[in-house]
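PT: before anyone asks, these are the final sequences, not the draft ones from last week. 440 residues across everything. Please model them as a single complex and drop the result in this thread when it's through.
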Amino acid sequence: MFDEKLKREFAKRVLAGEINDSLDGKHVNVFGWVHEVRDLGKLVFIVLRDVSGVCQVVFRRDELDESALKALNSLSNESVVFVHGVVAKQPKSRLGVEIVGETLKVLSQAAPRLEYDPTEKVSASLDVRLKHRILDLRRQKVKPIFILGSAVLKALRDFLYGRGFIEVRTPKIIGSATEGGAELFEVKYFDRVAYLAQSPQLYKEQLTTVFEKVFEIGPFFRAEQSHTRRHISEFTSVDIEQAFADMDDVMKTLEEAIAYVYQHLVNNHQKELSMLGLTLKVPKTPFKRITYDEAVGILEKDGISLKWGEDFGTPHLRALAKHFHGFYFITGFPTEIKPFYIQPSAENPSISESFDLMYQWLELASGGTRVNEHSVLRERLIQKGLDPKQFEDHLKVFEYGMPVHAGWGLGFERLMMVLTRHTNIREVIVFPRDRFRLTP
RNA sequence: GCCCAGGUGGUAUAGCCAGGUUAGCAUCGCCGGCUGUCGCCCGGCGGACCCGGGUUCAAAUCCCGGCCUGGGCGCCA
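LR: through. Structure below.
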């Protein structure tokens, strides 16, 4: 019960992470989870954890009243407690400061012997960690990932709002699966079949005719059989689309957005970065740009040749990454391997106005200039073996006045992998959904 | 989907190749002790061979199938 008495105590709460020398001698209230107990007999140390971090509380059994003693003896790891005590500088403590506990209340008793121990004394496999994800998230090496994730989303929004973009939301339940490409999930939609959206592409293009600059940050779904460290069934895409712009304009927006995110984390999140053992350097813009043709040439010299017109496979990208460190763009992919809405180049229609943003061998984003002429778009659909009739609603918009426009989609979790140096995308998703994982 | 590796107490592992041990160690949980721990320490107790079939006097160990996990590749407007 969160009664009036407890509420009054909570109003005077100090966070564990804020317990420091300057509070020496002050009475404080702390609320949190029992991270660890070290019982020495007459002396009991508990490490208390809350959202901000951990602090140490010491109890002297001799000096406690009966209710505090009882609470102390029943303490289990991860129980929620309220502690009132005096802050004391303590050179004998590794943190240099501790709370001498005077009262202790167990607010929620945790079951003994949890399935998984967040103190990091024994390691656990990723599979076990994800099965008990809530306990895993409490670890000091995991929680900061998601605090940073929140900061990245804020930075991206701040940046895009600052550039005059309007945030939009497009449907995640769609009626047609005819666009080709990725496999879609089927869902029951009353008495009809519907699909989960794989991207906001067509909607965001249409919306540029109203709002000119739009962006969306949202979940999208791919029903691929992929079994890799960088693919999942449900992911978050950061998508922008801009009217009166071409690929060069939106590439600039993209690299500046990335640099802005880095700067935001460096300025405001040193604590989380250091908890994860990370030091970030803001990448220099503009990023390096190479063309598809140049990349093919480099691969050829390395003896990993590729027929012109083919897309890069994983071995190709890994080989390329040996030549380019950090972020770089690959531009001008063959029109053949790009979707119907990508604009073929005017000088050479077999090359398209397209780009991918890479980090080493990881593809982070892809985008380009879009086809904006109704007749060309219709033609491109037919070339791709798609049926223009299935795209009536979309094509119609191209008769309502469609300026030249461009945009990109950035994989949010892939950016998080790069920022936090994790090699498995599941590490940076709270509850990942992959080919074999549907719970928790 | 294909290829490779693996599945031993709640967790992390040894044992498996060369079949026969009371299945070892750590952590964990419980009980007891300890006034400066910080991966506390010390003593006691508890808890495991993924499932099914086969070979054998005997299977955690060898063989076959399944399920699951990790990694690689493919798929991935």
